[in-house]
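From the methods appendix. Each design record in this collection lists the tokenized structure first, followed by the designed amino acid sequence. Records were kept in a plain field format so they could be parsed without special tools. The example shown here is representative of the layout used throughout.

RECORD:
FOLD TOKENS (405 positions):
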């Protein structure tokens, strides 16, 4: 038996030091608790606010048909799936949702996951299993794509945002193992679109598999909301795997990975984040199925969004706000310093609007922003009122900063 105690770093000390550092950097994260929700309105701390930061782009999360599909299925099938898919948790409602998604997006098959994060981990873990395999990624890809490469244990190479030539260079100089080229379809913090046609050419020339995470594109982009891949005129031959998530435009939660029969079967049999987890509740699948049918049918929701994007951008330009190059419902306004974006977000809340501040490490240093997002449920008048409030908040924050300089 050892007689001395091993001197290891104390984890309590470590987290205290890290907390102190975050505090000094003004980066303490706070959760806001929503007590009630009614369309785009939310009650927080007893105050009703107009929300401009959810991802409920099509306004489906509280849609009557979606909610009653959830209620009906829960009444019949219960609250949970009771097991993982490969044990006895796989339900006919999961099957129906997978088939609907595959048909909508023009892929042979789809596989349902509990979240987009888990699905991204699954794809790379199941495919990039050798040490000299490589995943080449846009520098601004979602955190789950980057973490997936770490989990898979293969090499990670990143290229400058939207730079297909940069992707080509990285692939050319990568080790000779299998390669994946992974990109967001719509970038979650910037709202711009990946150059998918160029990336598909690069992937083809370099023998890499193109993987598109279209979490923010499906339901919103292109004809009948079929997303960035279909809008670029691409399909399963060019983009052998793509991700669609349900927590954004489809108003629910979960995700599917789409691919051909062999690829999807391989994921179902080998991807640990698929195998070792409880299946999503069948009632949730029923709700998402109802949401998908509405998203496919209701072009008016996308037309309304396009109109609101126009109203927002015209108003922002009039007030000299720092718009980014985005035509999607993600309309971030760059504020630069973290203190500025925090002060602006607080000022907006006082005026009755919820727009959360997005700061590093979610976005690069010096690129803090108000991530304004639009929903088909907003009215043009609400958007105009938001713009006025933002301009007012900017003026008063700049004034305060000048006084205290
Ligand atoms: C681009 C992107 N991919 C994946 C995810 C993860 O999806 P989920 O929220 O379903 O885990 C998100 C959002 O959080 C995202 O923005």
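DESIGN:
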């Amino acid at each position: 038996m050892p007689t001395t105690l091993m001197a290891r770093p104390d984890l309590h000390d470590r987290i205290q030091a890290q907390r102190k550092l975050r505090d000094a950097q003004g980066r303490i994260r706070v959760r806001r608790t929503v007590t009630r929700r009614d369309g785009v309105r939310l009650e927080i701390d007893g105050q009703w606010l107009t929300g401009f930061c959810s991802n409920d782009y099509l306004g489906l999360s509280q849609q009557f048909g979606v909610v009653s599909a959830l209620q009906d299925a829960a009444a019949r099938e219960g609250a949970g799936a009771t097991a993982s898919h490969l044990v006895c948790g796989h339900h006919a409602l999961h099957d129906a949702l997978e088939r609907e998604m595959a048909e909508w997006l023009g892929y042979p098959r789809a596989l349902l996951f509990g979240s987009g994060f888990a699905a991204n981990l699954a794809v790379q873990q199941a495919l990039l299993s050798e040490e000299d395999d490589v995943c080449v990624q846009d520098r601004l890809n979602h955190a789950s794509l980057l973490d997936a490469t770490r989990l898979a244990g293969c090499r990670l190479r990143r290229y400058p945002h939207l730079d297909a030539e940069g992707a080509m260079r990285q692939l050319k100089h990568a080790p000779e193992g299998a390669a994946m080229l992974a990109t967001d379809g719509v970038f979650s913090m910037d709202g711009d679109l990946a150059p998918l046609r160029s990336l598909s050419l690069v992937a083809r020339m370099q023998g890499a598999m193109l993987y598109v995470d279209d979490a923010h594109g499906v339901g919103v982009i292109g004809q009948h909301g079929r997303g960035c891949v279909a809008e670029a005129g691409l399909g399963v031959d060019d983009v052998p795997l793509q991700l669609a998530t349900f927590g954004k435009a489809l108003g629910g939660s979960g995700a599917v990975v789409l691919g051909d029969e062999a690829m999807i079967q391989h994921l179902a049999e080998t991807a640990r984040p698929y195998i070792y987890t409880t299946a999503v509740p069948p009632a949730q699948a029923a709700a998402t199925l109802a949401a998908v049918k509405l998203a496919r049918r209701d072009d008016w929701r996308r037309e309304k969004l396009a109109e609101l994007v126009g109203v927002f951008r015209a108003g922002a330009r009039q007030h000299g706000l720092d718009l980014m190059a985005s035509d999607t419902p993600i309309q971030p306004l760059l504020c630069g310093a973290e203190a500025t974006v925090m002060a602006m977000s607080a000022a907006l809340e006082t005026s009755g609007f919820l727009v959360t501040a997005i700061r590093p490490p979610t976005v690069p240093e010096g690129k803090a922003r108000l991530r304004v997002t639009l929903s088909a449920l907003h009215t043009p008048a609400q958007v105009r009122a938001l713009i006025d409030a933002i301009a007012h908040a900017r003026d008063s924050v700049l004034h305060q900063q000048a006084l205290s300089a």
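APPENDIX NOTE: The mean pLDDT is 96.
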